[in-house]
Amino acid sequence: MFNTGNTNRRAPRPPRAAMPGLPPANPGSGFALRLSPLFLLAAALAALAVVFMYDARSVSAQAVGQEVRPAVQVPGPVTGLTLSSTATSVTVRWQAPASGDEPTRYIAHLRPEGGEGGSGRTKTPKAKKTSVTFNNLEPGATYKVWVRARNAGGKGERVHAVITLPQTDALPNSIERPVEVIRCEQFFSTAYCDSFK
């Protein structure tokens, strides 16, 4: 008898060995990749480790040669606040705070006593200037003044003072006053007075 079978048919291949953590392939449906939860967890941890190492190297590269600066502290209250005035002006003087970090500017505010919030005036001189003058004020009026220091850390505590302006400016010491003229003849003889002429 003749063999009617296909003599060229190859023998079926043995199933491939499964990778660690992977289930074996299904020979009936081709090679289907099915990942186990353990393999997925390991891959996720490896990816996180790579990202962490990259971020750490980036931060280290940026920090090379750069000094870590501490946070700026808010300046303390100004010291030695004094007020002086004329009938129409107030001059405010102060000294630098004794605590906190150095200020970059000052804030000086003047407002009439009993005035509303928007009725005042504000000046913001730089740190090297420790005095300001408010002009064109009302004679005899009372004004409230406060000064505070500021820097990148924030604004320091306010220091308050109150002053009442005079009704008129005081006369300067060099003003000319009338002088009473006394004649020599009122007390001495004419001959005696003539001897000094």
Structural class: alpha+beta
Query: How many strands, which pairing sense, and closed or not: the largest β-sheet?
Result: 5 strands, antiparallel
Distance between the termini: 180 Å
CATH class of the domain at 79-164: Mainly Beta
Roughly how much helix do the residues carry, as a percent range? 10-25%
Provide a descriptive summary of the structure in words.
This protein is of the alpha+beta class. The chain has a domain at 79-164: Immunoglobulins (Immunoglobulin-like, Sandwich), CATH 2.60.40.10. Helix content is 16%, strand content 23%. It has helices at 37-63, 190-194; strands spanning 79-85, 90-95, 105-112, 121-123, 131-134, 142-151, 154-155, 159-164. Strands 3, 4, 6, 7 and 8 form a five-stranded antiparallel β-sheet that branches. Strands 1-2-5 form a three-stranded antiparallel β-sheet, with no helix packed on it. The radius of gyration is 47 Å and the shape is rod-shaped. The N and C termini lie far apart (180 Å). Mean pLDDT is 77; it is low at 173-179.
